Structures are given as C-alpha cells and as structure tokens.
Protein 1
Amino acid sequence: MQIIEDNDASGGRYHATIDGSTAEMTFSRTSPSLIIIDHTLVPDALRGKGVGQALALHAVEAARAGGWKIIPLCPFFKAQLERHPDWQDILKS
C-alpha cells in the first residue's frame, strides 16, 4: 500500500487510495519536534483491510525518522498506541 504525505507549515495528512477510496490521517504541527494527530478517516469500503493500521504505523515511522514526538488526540490513533507498547517512544511525555 502506498501512503502519501502532504505537508504545509501548519500540518498535513497521510493518505492512501485503494480501489478509488481514500483513507487519511491528519495532523497539526505545533513545533519542528512535535505533531498532534487529530483525525483518522477510513471509508466503509476500506474497513477491515488494515489501512488505518498502516497509516498509524507510517506516522510512527515518520516520527522516528524525523526525530519528533506525537500527541495523540485521535481516538483511533490512541487505541493503536495502546495495542503497540513498542510505539511508546514517539509519545510526547
């Protein structure tokens, strides 16, 4: 699955389009070292296909590669963090 990242000065989104349906995870940038993940949208046509999980993993990998932390406001992303104790290193403490 190809995940595309769109950025601007204040934030952006990670998104993937499969069979004409697009799922996305949006974020706001509060500083060069901190983002807030605020929303995840997975259309019904893509539910159960692991798209949301892939978006969440992409966000974690991007944070690690970029050296920033994440504040998880999105309920879906928060739930993913609880399922993955190995992702705790990207959390803003």
Protein 2
Amino acid sequence: MKPLTQEDRAAALPALGETGWAAVPDRDAIRKVWKFKSFVEAWGFMSRVALLAEKLNHHPEWRNVYNVVDVTLTTHDCDGLSDLDLDLARRMDKLAGEAMVQRDHGQPITCLCQERKGKAGA
C-alpha cells in the first residue's frame, strides 16, 4: 500500500473536509466525530462499519461513548493516508446517515448522558 500523493490529497481531502473529516495534528491521518440519536444507533453504525472494514481489510481507530463515535483513519502499512482511508471515509459517511457531525475537534466531545446530566443540574 502506498501513501497518497500530493495530487491525490488535493483532489480528495477538500470534499471530505466538507463532510466533517479533518486532519489530525502531528499525524498523517483524518478524524471525524459523529453524534447519533442513541447508543443503539451508534452501535449499529459501528457494526456496519466493522463488517465493511473486515471486507476491505482496513480497520479504523475508533472510540465510542454512548451515542458518540470518534474515528481516526490512517493506513498503518504505509504510515499515513492511503486510498483505503479515502474509500472507508466515504463509505462511513454513507453509513452514518443523518447523524450529527461535530466539526470542531478542539471542543470537548459530550455524549447524550453528559448533556442530560448538565441539563438536570441547571
């Protein structure tokens, strides 16, 4: 597997950026955070992605807390972004459906239970 060329990056990354994918500081990787309506929706998304990732033999780095799924894509075989990452990112976007996207990765990521707790304490 080969890393993306500068031409490939220029052609593909802006469109992915418009959907919420962003560069990961200090890594050749992209990241996206989805917020689903429930834990079941988040887990269903992860299950569908897991089956797809297994078929592609390309697995995301991800974290799930309640309704939030936080994904980082990079290809470890080439130590950076590859066509596999672009393909998986696009497919994940389709599988996520109408989930909300947290575009500002510098802000704290809160799940529904934390949001409910905050409202109860207000």
Protein 3
Amino acid sequence: MAWFLLVIAGLLEILWAFSMKQSEGFTRLGATSVTLVAMVLSFGLLSWSMRTLPLGTAYTVWTGIGAVGAFVVGIVFLHEPMSAMRILAATLIIGGLVLMKLSS
C-alpha cells in the first residue's frame, strides 16, 4: 500500500508543478488553487508512505517521479525543448528509481 500511495503522491507532484506553471506566478486563481490542493495531497501521501518506507527511498522516488513527469509534461504540453542530453538525464533518473525500488 505504501508504494501505491507514493506513486499517487508523485503523480500529484507532477500536477502541482504543471499547475504552478499555469498559475503565472500565482496570479490565476484556478491554477493556484489546483497547485495548493495538489501540494497538500502530495505531501500528505508522501508522509503516509514514509510510515513504512525508508526516508531516502520514499523521498527519492517521490522527487524522481515528479522530476521525470514534469519533464515529460513540459515537452508534451508546453512544447519545451527535447534534446539528447535531457533525455539521457531523465533516463538516468528512471534508472535510479528502479534501483531504489529494487533495493527496498
């Protein structure tokens, strides 16, 4: 159950990062509201997953999901640049997440 909650927390991290970008510096009420709700839920689920998962594992996986997810969302929805170096960096993060999961 902790791993499931951690993945949901990571997905919510992607949502709040995207909605924060859409809030234009917290000047748009709808996007700002989504950002704040998603942040609270994401942190709450991360905290809950840390009841049974080690701190280093939970935090690393949570930030990794958020980082790679935000990278993909940026490319797909915001048309951010996609270079070989950025793809390599994201691939290395995913490799680290897999190793972290296997070590737990």
Protein 4
Amino acid sequence: MTETIKALRIQLLKPGVTVAVPWYSIGIAILIVTGLFAVVGDTTAPYSGRTTGALCAFYASSIGVQPWLMNQLFPFSMALSVTRRAFIRATALLILGEAVLAGLGLALLNKIEIATHGWFVHTRVLNLPHIHQDDFFAQALVYGVPTMALTTATAFVGAVFRVFGQFGLWALGVGIAFVSAVVVAILMLTHSMGHVGHFFASQPMLADFALYPLALVALFGTGWLVLMSRARV
C-alpha cells in the first residue's frame, strides 16, 4: 500500500461526510421540489417558468468538507505516520474524483429529468436553460468543473485556518473584501462594468462554467499547496 493510498483511505473513513452529503442534499431537494409542484399542480407557471434553484443545494452542502479534512483528518493522518506529501496528493485525488463523480452523476440525473419531463411534474431542477448542453460529456463538464473550483476554494480556506488560525480567516475575508471593492471601483470609474458583464454573457456556457473556473482551481490550488506544505500538525 502506497502512502498516498493510505492517506486516501483515511480521508474516506467517513464517506457519508466526505462524498455522500451533496448527493443526499440534491436527492432531498428533488423530493421537495417534486412534492411541491405535485401539490400545486397547474396553478403555477408553465414548464418554461418552473425553474428552481434547488441545484444550489448540491454545491452549498459540500462547503464544509474540505475545511474538516484540513483541520481534523490532517493531524490524525500525521499521527498515523502519513507523510505531508502523501496527504496532499490524496486530497488532490479526492477533489478530482469528487468533480468527476459530480459531473457524470448530475449529467445522468439531468438526462433522467428530461426523460421524465421534469420529474413527472414539469419542473426544472438540473436542466436549467442557461447551463443546458446537448452533449452528455459537455454537460458533465458544466456540472463538474464548478464543483472542483468550489472544493479547491474551500480547501484553501481550510488551509488558511490550519496555518494562521481565526485571525488568518479574518485577514483573508478583509483582503477579499478590499480587493473586490478596488476592482468594482475601477470598473465603475472606467465605465467598464457593463463590458465585463457583456463579455461573460456573450461567451458559450461551456466556457463560463467549464473553462474560466479552471483559473480559480489553479489560483486556490496553488495557494492551498503552499499553505499545506507548511501547515503545522
């Protein structure tokens, strides 16, 4: 057994926490939405207007997983003689595996939603008009790459807390708020806000959801790697 596999097995000791929670969430969201529209029947908008935000439950429910791994399982793994590099590699594999599983799994659920005409009640949970792709694997990329970006970002947050503690999280929040304010101010002063919005609105959805998020993966992934290489046990 290699060190990386050993570290990965430790991270998967509780798959109900590390992997399954987003799937529980999207399942519950589908049940709630289906039940709601089954009750209200045809008294609401037609199918084209029955678009819900229930898909957000899948992404929101996974936010706490990586910080938990960084701050609970990292010292536990070190105590079991897992090397720091092995833990980092195992975490990267886990993030990649979750993204692939999310992409293919949600794309399959999307096909089921289409085949059942909106879960038999003509509603949209996954087949949202602004992210719809005709190709199955393109659809999987649209679902999966944002998952990787979100997971990498939360892993970075967990690493910040691991290295710098509560003050580090506060400083990170202040820094992000300051940079965001400066960027918005520059865009407003140069009257470029509309141009930026138009640029992304004019791009193919595959670029907006599967290409540009990779920049966030690279940014937060690099920061996470640097911090975890120096994290105290």
